[in-house]
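Notes taken during the Thursday session

The instructor put the following on the board and asked us to keep it in front of us for the whole hour. The protein is Non-hydrolyzing UDP-N-acetylglucosamine 2-epimerase. We were told not to look anything up and to reason only from what is written here. First, the residues (358 in total):
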Amino acid sequence: MRELAVVVGTRPEIIKMAPVIRAAQGRFDLHLIHTGQHYDEEMSGAFFESLDLPTPDDNLEIGSGSQAEQTASGLVGVESMLVERDPAAVLALGDTNAVVSTALAASKLPTKFGHVEAGLRSFDRTMPEEVNRVVADHVADFSFAPTDQAVQHLDDEGISAGVYETGNTIVDACRDHAPMAEERSTVLTDLDIAGRDYVAATIHRASNTDDPDRLRAIMDALDTASAPVVLPAHPRTTSVLDDIGYEPSGSLRLVDPLDYLDFLKLLDNARVAVTDSGGIQEEASILEVPCLTVRPNTERPETVSAGVNQLVEPEDLGDRLETLLTDDAERAAMTGHPNLYGDGTAGEHIVDVLDAQV
Ligand code: UD1
Ligand code: UDP
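Then, after some discussion, the predicted structure tokens were revealed:
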């Protein structure tokens, strides 16, 4: 059987690669590589268990570090795996340092590189993720683009060979697991909150956490909301909040990162979502939860054009959130586009292409 290597490094890659891994099982000899960029049980190991994924065959244990350190360690580690195993193709997903390492390593070897979630652009090169996306797209042999617009971005940059519009695997992941989450997760009872009565929030983007004044302004806006706000805090966020001694005293509840089924249930039953996450902008649109994204731009502009996601700056967050919490019509106007990212068959589609081409 042909070998297919799959590289993951962080929480969202594990979640969004799960449908591809499942679709490939039995059709390819899978070699699952974890770069180890995320390593806490609640940011990594827990997802393999709850999504019933095979344990990675190799963990490169690159851990935390600067952009260059993570990229360089990943590059050396992935290269040595690809040289040793010589798979027919290697896949990586999204825009993390694991992706750029894999793209660069594969591009100088016979192994074909497939970029899952190709063609996204924020057009903001101050984001390390934007640099990673652009580099990965320009060396990919297969570009699995989630939307028309992503295909167009690739075309605008002269990339048209090997491009397949597949939808986004987040739809597969979300649709497969939302009913399971509804049935199995006890998160609402555990947190003593009632459906549609609270805000689900996450903040982890470096542009928000690395500026303590900005982070404090976001937290203050959430802490003064008129409904409970549950924020499962990424370790990056917890670390800065600890450093600046931030203690919420109002509506904001900082909790540990949640398992995927718990987070899906929390999001699915929220009145409003507030985030700077890429994946959660997508999931909120799929689950039809109005979303406020605390960023000046997004590589998921289809959510904004469809009216289900709004970009806000920290100084406007409190007012905008309050309007959405209290105005049923405003909230209703921000739902109704659950299919922006495809029909939930992206994983199968990607594996079908590879099956035919490698
Ligand atoms: C990375 C990705 C980002 C993605 C996010 C998903 C890049 C450039 N960024 O950002 O695109 O949205 O993952 O969550 O690849 N830490 C822990 N335990 C862990 C992991 C991280 O304590 O298991 C802490 C460390 O202090 C670390 C910090 O979080 O320095 C940041 O982690 P890192 O993986 O560098 O970046 P993320 O912000 O997670
Ligand atoms: N998520 C989770 N537990 C949490 C917070 C988020 O399982 O406590 C999931 C969420 O459902 C989404 C993914 O993690 O699928 C998003 O990851 P993150 O926001 O860290 O990264 P991004 O998508 O911004 O790259």
